[in-house]
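go over this record:
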Amino acid sequence: MKGGGGLLGRYDTQKFGCGVMVKCLLFAMVVLSVLNPAVLPSSIFQSKWTINQPVSIEEEPNFGVSNSDHTKLALRLLAKTKSQNEDETPTTEIILNKSKLIYNSANPRYNICSIEGDIRIVSNASTIFIVSPTPLNPNTTTWKIKPYPRKWESYCMSSITEMTIQQLTDANQTRSCDVNHDLPAVVFSTARFTGNLFHDYTDMIYPLFLATQRYNGEVKLVVEDYVSKCIEKYQPYLTRLSHYPIINIDTGSRVHCFSSAQVGLENPGPLGYKFENPQNDQAMQQFRRFIRESLYLERSEVEKGKKPRLLVLIRKNTRLIINEDDVMNLAKDVGFEVVTADEETTKDFPGIAHIVNSCDVLMGIHGAGLANMLYLPANGTVLQITPFGNLKWVGRFDYGDPPRGFGFRYVEYEITLDESTLIEKYPRDHPWLRVRRKGNFANYIMFKVLASWVGISQCMASERTFVAAVILFVAVFGFA
């Protein structure tokens, strides 16, 4: 089975007995009463949420034409971005007559090509022509690009179709236009759609938002590697980003002509968090507002004067909370109304968005489910449990930094060896457990190998850990 999203995403991880964590954090989090979140009716869990805005696809007549590694990224991406050699010239910009081409390969996360002029996108050929009577570049007339913003992962990019952007000096060198569009185009791929919420938002929805928001819907979306499930699932967003039918260039043989186009998408970081400028959260705030409006979520921010409502994400195969009943009872004892969402519930989109929006705190073990934080009201709280093995940086990278940009509060708890079921499988001095405490890359991989071999256990909270959790909570939220 595939694991959740983020740096632990594609691997199975061990099961945890998390009673200690819950007792520590939930008791501390009774302070959340100052947040006074609103409690919505339980009937929200029986509702099926539909948004009647079908995505239309521009029909193409058939003319008979036939048709890495997450972890290394975490440590090297930021360094690579900050240490970009100023002597390098990864951005090519050519402006001649009415034609303009900017090919930007400087960012380690993505490539983008912006074009203006006589642009001709040929369906079912993965080719874009730009017609200019004078050569745009003395060294080349051809550029290659894969329009998916995850270029550091070779295994991921191997499934993305490469597009060729070619400059022609004579319009007669290619076919004439079948369809002339008077709007700009944004060209992207949906080949890597897997239903993993973290990657859907990080690699597609947020990048599309950045690319199209300035057009207020007056833009054409051009899709390569078309995945219908992806387009259907995210129709509430796509119909707001563009008011026009989506163009599927995998089929047909039409030549679509534009005067401007962006090929590829910008991927600032996990869930849109921009590492090189963490204070620049304006776009993230706008994106959260865009989500709320697109899905018709009722709560824009946490209200005062009501009982706090906690949503616990429940997993059934990996990274389990073994003593779930104890967790639920403890949360209730310290003052929360508790609701749960299992993996099937989280797949019900956009229903899960309304459930999360009805809550004030989202709690879960590291994984793609935590990306549901995007549906929380402003000033909501994200509580992440990170696995044993000195892997706090993993959790912080994917789900610890983004909340600040979205206007959420963040609390984390790192599982200790005594709270992990690994202690039942291996002696305390076992080399694998000793090495994993160092938290380096090799041990991170070793941590993955152990995933399917662990047992189950429960834990008791110690007073020392309890006090530490209270201090952590006060430090994060500033409550005295």
Remarks:
- The domain at 6-40+304-477 is CATH 3.40.50 (Rossmann fold).
- The longest helix spans residues 197-212.
- Residues 144 and 166 are 9 Å apart (CA to CA).
- The chain has two domains: 6-40+304-477, 93-266.
